[in-house]
Amino acid sequence: MKKILYVGSECMPFAATGGLGDVMGSLPASLKEKYPEEYDVRVVLPLYDAVNESWRSQMTFEGNFTVQLGWREQYCGVFSLVKDNVTYYFIDNEYYFKRGSLYGQYDDGERFGFFSLAVLEMFPHIGFYPDVIHANDWQSALTVVYLNAKFRGVWGYTYIKTIFTIHNIEYQGKVPEEFLKEVIGLSDDWHDVMYHKDCINFVKSAVELSDR
């Protein structure tokens, strides 16, 4: 059974603002419904403050660990919930995700850098290593980057394939060049692949590095 993990910043009916949330909420479930014996389909998104208590009450705590984001050491908890035969994981960190809105925060680049790295760090804690990671839009683009920069050669990660889907090209995850070392925590070796028009560009990086 092929294991597919969809990574996105929103997903209906848990927390969503638009088309990305609609796709994340429908595509994984449709795939599992059509091919129930062929695919193990799972989804991961942040555990926003906006996620209703009715969903939280159904979640199972999977564990917690520390994520090293540049010089920062951040708590990360993982919760799970099964709906329509799809397993949904929620990345918990109140500092980043207990906000009044999903997006539009001054530190969105850091918030979703944390999310992208936490997704990869959670695999040994949940006992699940996907065959394919399907990242969506700029908020999860660094999942593709971190996989190549930090995890290739590590057991369970070596043969993971990546797909990157752009739902809205207008938003690309643009941050200053110093963000590469100070927040993303990568060396200058990754500058060229992530650099575009005077800034570090998350979407451009994932386009360069993803398998499809």
Structure report:
With 212 residues, the protein is α/β, with parallel strands linked by helices. It has 9 helices and 9 strands. The protein has a 7-stranded mixed sheet, sandwiched between helices. A two-stranded antiparallel ribbon has the order 8-9. α6 crosses α9 (202-209). The longest helix is centred in the first third of the chain and has 16 residues, at 19-34.
Summarize the topology.
Blueprint: E1 2-7, H1 19-34, E2 39-46, H2 53-56, E3 60-69, E4 72-83, E5 86-92, H3 94-97, H4 108-121, H5 123-126, E6 132-136, H6 141-151, E7 161-165, E8 174-175, H7 179-184, H8 191-194, E9 200-201, H9 202-209
Parallel strand pairs: 1-2, 1-6, 2-5, 6-7
Antiparallel strand pairs: 3-4, 4-5, 8-9
In a few lines, what is going on in this structure?
The chain is α/β, with parallel strands linked by helices and 212 residues long.
Helix content: 25-40%
Which structural category do the helix and sheet elements fall into?
alpha/beta
Q: Strands of the biggest beta sheet: in what spatial order?
A: 3-4-5-2-1-6-7
In N-to-C order, the SSE pattern is: EHEHEEEHHHEHEEHHEH
Rg calculated over all Cα atoms: 16 Å
- Number of DSSP strand runs: 9
Summarize the main sheet: 7 strands, mixed
Shape: globular
Uncertain ranges? none
Give the termini separation.
Answer: 21 Å
Percent range for β-strand residues: 25-35%
Instruction: Count every helix, treating DSSP H or I runs of 4 or more residues as helices.
Output: 9
Average pLDDT over all residues: 97
